[in-house]
Amino acid sequence: MTTTGTPPGVAEVRGRSQVAEPRPGTGRRPLMSRRVTLAVLGLAALALLLRLAMLIKPLTLVDRLFVPDDAYYTLAIARSLAEGLGPSADGGVTLTTGFQPLIAFLIAPVFWVTDDLGVPLRALLVVLALADAVTVVLLARLAGRLAGPAAALVAAALWAVSPYALSISLNGLESALALTMTLALVEVWCLARERSGLRLWALAGALAGLALLTRVDTAFVVVLLGVLELASRRVRPVLLAAGTALLVVLPWWAYSIVLTGSPVPESGKAVQEIVSVHRGLGLGVTDSLGLAVGRVVGSPVLDLPDLRAVLDDSPARAVASAAGLCVALGAAALWAGTRRRNGIRQLPLLALGLHAVSLVLFYTFLDGAPWFYDRYLVPVAAVCGLVIAVLLGQLWSAAAARRPGGALGGVFTAAVLAVLVVPAAQTVRLLDSEPEGSVDVGYDGAKGYAEVAREVLAKLPPGAVLGSLQTGALAYFAPNAAPGRVQVVNLDGVVDGNAGDALADDRLADYLHQRGVTHFADWPLNYFVLQSHSTAAEVGQVRLEPIGKARLQGGERFEISRVSYPGAP
Predict the structure, then answer these.
(1) Mean pLDDT within 312-323
(2) Across the strands, what pairs with 559?
(3) Bridging pattern class, strands 487-490 and 519-522
(4) Residue 497, domain extent
(5) Are residue 145 and residue 204 in the same domain, yes or no?
(6) Consecutive H or E run containing 553
(7) 83 assigned to some structural domain
(8) Does 68 fall in a domain?
(9) Is the Cα dihedral 323, 325, 331, 337 positive or negative?
């Protein structure tokens, strides 16, 4: 069938045009035809099935593969909320803002119906899997806005089978939900610009507020959307959206300001202190740049640990690659902002692209915690996936405008197979893997903290007060610890502002004494942190007597010590 002269963007599937006709009486062309919509929904269902296939496996295995310690902070805080103790990771002793609130609020009701600590984790992972299935649909819609139905299908398929996307949706953190909220905000903002009426602007504002409650760094895209709209002289819609967003976030922000003086989670300050420790051990800004680029380049198609190592070893390569990534993302964002649909520019997609650039710059120059890049840079990976899908969509348009069976059609088919078969094969291997411990080491961050926590808690006497810089899983499992209840004290400040102050002021050993810590358990590096962030006098007043180790995890073992204070006043 000859299609010479077919306008760009026309897709041919089995020889039939998939361009949707304008809706009667509106003059607006639907974003996707019925057939493409059904295909996208099928891919979303596939994504959900892949994630649920992993969730039917033992939680110990899921924990080893995907779940970092911070996920257990969320669960411990959700349990505290359910028990009416307020947002606290240690059973109501210390109130905190050091978490992203929406996911904890969503999962808290599960603790009303079960005492099994595995059930809330499974419920949390199901929520995230459902969110990621919605992400598949949203990515398809955004790609379709830019390059038609072929791009929509590629974007949906790529995220559905991506091993990176699967791992993020099963990490027990807010990352997958935050991406869903971000993409939903951008999509609804696009719809609000295309249609008359204020309801969609109010909905966009509500989504902006929910996005901020899901992850505070979504502030980049929220602000960018508002600024770009104001630059287009659309003041009233922005004011409505901003007012609605403020109504959503105001209760939480008010609580946070009263408790800590800032709406920003107190965990941010603690992370910066921990990063300063690693800076002192040789982690430079160029290392962070290289690790960030190595994380997102290739995602969501495949993981490239060797690339991260190559970039981490060369400051020049790291800086050049980071600059190239930001320029490429910025150029793609500017191109997206010039695209028109139904005569209206797609400015919200410009905001999404600039949001990705902002995250790369912020988390390398200002935050610099590469062990969190998996979760921090999820929107960047999603935007990279959109870029791949749009490029293939443009290739398909060019092929369809000439001859479906021609050389360009063959190139399109080969490219699609390349970007889908490789990640799909990695995902299948991931679903079949049964590691004996954490599969991640170093800056990729160890997993499998549940087993470690249970082993540590089992070695402690009844009534012990356990101090650690890694207290997520320890705090979550402590109430059920045998042989008796153990109190857990957080020392890195992520969920305890007083500990964060002690860490920053080099008073960590003194804080152990203040809280009556009887035992200390952590990685060897954090034993060093305890000493290096305490004065010499304090170190001399504290004695750590080794009493055991937990199983090997992430290349190292948790070491357990009895704490005494023979020289303390």
Answers:
(1) 83
(2) 522, 549
(3) unpaired
(4) 448-564
(5) yes
(6) strand 543-553
(7) no
(8) no
(9) negative
What is the model's pLDDT at position 3?
38
Q: State the DSSP H helix or E strand holding residue 74, giving kind and residue range, or none if neither.
A: helix 69-82
- How far is Cα 337 from Cα 188, in angstroms, rounded to an integer? 16
Nearest-angstrom CA–CA distance, 93 and 108: 18
**At 156, which amino acid appears?**
A
pLDDT tens track for 120-132: 999 999 999 999 9
Q: Per the structure block, which two tokens stand in for 312? A: 């981490």
- The whole-chain average pLDDT of the chain stands at 87
**Is 7 a member of any domain?**
no
Residue for token pair 């379709």: 144
The secondary element (H helix, E strand) that includes residue 422 is helix 407-432
Three-class SS string for 270-307?
Answer: HHHHHHHHHHHCCCCHHHHHHHHHHHHCCCCCCCCHHH
Enter the tokens of residue 453. Answer: 């926590």
Q: Average pLDDT of 234-254? A: 95
What's the pLDDT tens digit per position in 416-456?
888 888 889 889 988 888 887 777 766 777 788 999 999 99
333 pLDDT exceeds 90?
A: yes
Average pLDDT over residues 362-367: 86
Tokens read off for 330:
């910025």
Residue 73: other Cβ atoms inside 10 A: 27
From the number of C-beta atoms within 10 Å of its C-beta (0-12, 13-18, 19+), residue 223 rates as: middle
